Amino acid sequence: MPFAAITYDIKAGYEKEITEIFTGFRRVGSPVVKGDGGEESARILSTAVFIRDDTMVRVIEYEGDLRAIARHMAVQPGVREVEEKLAPYLTRPRATDTVEGFIATFERSLLTCMAQMSVRDAPRPSTS
């Protein structure tokens, strides 16, 4: 399962306030992301948020189409609420108030994955 990481440029010294924003986060209704025809196109498996100084990173573990996940996240009330509450703490504004703006910001904030390893990907040892 791949991981994606997106960055946020934040004002240093507001870790407590930003942590409080995520403490009340409203999760998405379903981890399943539907395509245009109603078929499952992706699945969000887990997320995590990390912060230090002036950088915050959101990590997403997923299956399927990452662009579909960005599109799905763009319309989730909890995600929109967090983006709005984060705005005063950003050093670089994020144009996430439209689906198109959210997707463009998501793609621009995406870190390049250099390596990924999981015990799930390792060959199982022989039991004979």
Describe the structure.
With about 130 residues, the protein is of the alpha+beta class. It has a single domain (about 5-115), classed as Alpha-Beta Plaits (2-Layer Sandwich). It has helices at about 15-25, 65-75, 75-85, 100-110, and strands at about 5-10, 30-35, 40-50, 55-65. Strands 1-4-3-2 form a four-stranded antiparallel beta sheet. A hairpin with a 2-residue loop joins β3 (about 40-50) and β4 (about 55-65). α2 (about 65-75) packs across α4. The chain starts with a strand and ends in a 19-residue tail after the last helix. The mean pLDDT is about 90. InterPro entries: SchA_CurD-like (IPR007575).
Q: Gist?
A:
A 4-stranded antiparallel beta sheet has the order 1-4-3-2. The protein has helices spanning 15-23, 66-74, 77-86, 99-109, and strands at residues 3-9, 32-34, 40-52, 55-64. By secondary structure, the chain is an alpha+beta fold.
CA-based gyration radius: 16 Å
Number of strands: 4
Strand content: 25-35%
* Outline: globular
Q: Can you summarize the main beta sheet?
A: 4 strands, antiparallel
User: Average pLDDT across residues?
Assistant: 90
Structural category is alpha+beta
- The CATH architecture is 2-Layer Sandwich
Please indicate the count of domains: 1
CATH structural class: Alpha Beta
| N-to-C CA distance | 28 Å
Provide the spatial order of strands within the biggest beta sheet.
1-4-3-2
